[in-house]
Amino acid sequence: MNHGDRRAGKLTGSVAKIVLHGSARAKNTLMRALLNPRKFHVGDTSNMPAPLAWGHNEEDYLRSMFWDQHPEYEFMSGDDATFIDSGSSLWSPPAELPRNLHRYVGTSPDGVLADSAGAKRGMIEIKSPYNPDALRLAISGGWVKRWLPQIDWGMMLTGLPYTWLIIGNRLEPPASPYRYREFLVTACPKRQTRMVMSAIGFLNRWTSGVEYHDDTPMKDAIASLLTALEIVND
């Protein structure tokens, strides 16, 4: 099964920031979107917005750069390493997440790392901002916190202890500091506790059909939704 079909209708890391920080209106919009998911096929960027298609197409290059830098790792392959949900061998959510909610969540890392013996060790998350100014800010470390909810979501559902955040752009000159950079993000129990509690609250409302009370002005709600979705590259 294509993992675009498996993730349809599931709460994943790409929208975790809405669950944590979104306005009531942004969360309600997400609830409705999850009820009417748009399925996609992995590798097909024809229907993606340009920034998302750009980031998707850059993944192979940045993944190969990481591989060159880290020969100590093996990449796990197969469906389990492409999309991780309650049917995956890599599934290891926290005990605080009720079992009845497991089927509504999943995560799709850009790579799962193993050692030479095949033991899982961590994940990678790849970002290649579409906007040159955004790339420079991200490479400088200014956007690491912006992507933490997505990274924490994956570690929360797998129990993996760290994620390498890889940022770059192959069109930059070879000697450019903006061509490639990596950041090691380790799991933080405090952040993950906040994440799982926020997810439980959202999922309980969604599965019960109870929306959030929305008294947010329209312009503020739109700004919150756009920020949470991180349209630049997610």
Describe this structure in words.
- The chain has 234 residues and is an alpha+beta fold.
- The protein has one domain (3-229): Lambda Exonuclease, Chain A.
- The chain contains 9 helices and 5 strands.
- It has helices at residues 3-6, 16-21, 24-35, 50-69, 79-82, 132-139, 148-158, 189-208, 218-229; strands at 74-76, 111-114, 120-127, 162-168, 180-186.
- It has a 5-stranded mixed β-sheet, with helices on both faces.
- Strand 2 and strand 3 form a beta hairpin.
- Helix 3 crosses helix 9 and helix 7 (148-158) crosses helix 8 (189-208).
- The model is unreliable at 230-234 (pLDDT under 50).
Report the principal-axis shape: globular
First and last CA, distance: 23 Å
CATH architecture: Alpha-Beta Complex
CATH class: Alpha Beta
Mean pLDDT: 84
Contiguous helical run count: 9
In terms of DSSP E residues, the strand content is 5-15%
Major beta sheet, strand line-up: 1-2-3-4-5
Say what the CATH topology is: Lambda Exonuclease, Chain A
Helix and strand sequence: HHHHEHEEHHEEHH
Q: Which structural class do you get from the secondary structure elements? A: alpha+beta
Count of spatially separate domains: 1
Binned, the helix content reads: 40-55%
Largest sheet: 5 strands, mixed
Number of strands: 5
Please state the CA-atom Rg, rounded to the nearest Å.
17 Å
Oligomer: single chain
Please mark out the parts with pLDDT under 50 across 5 or more consecutive residues, or reply none.
230-234
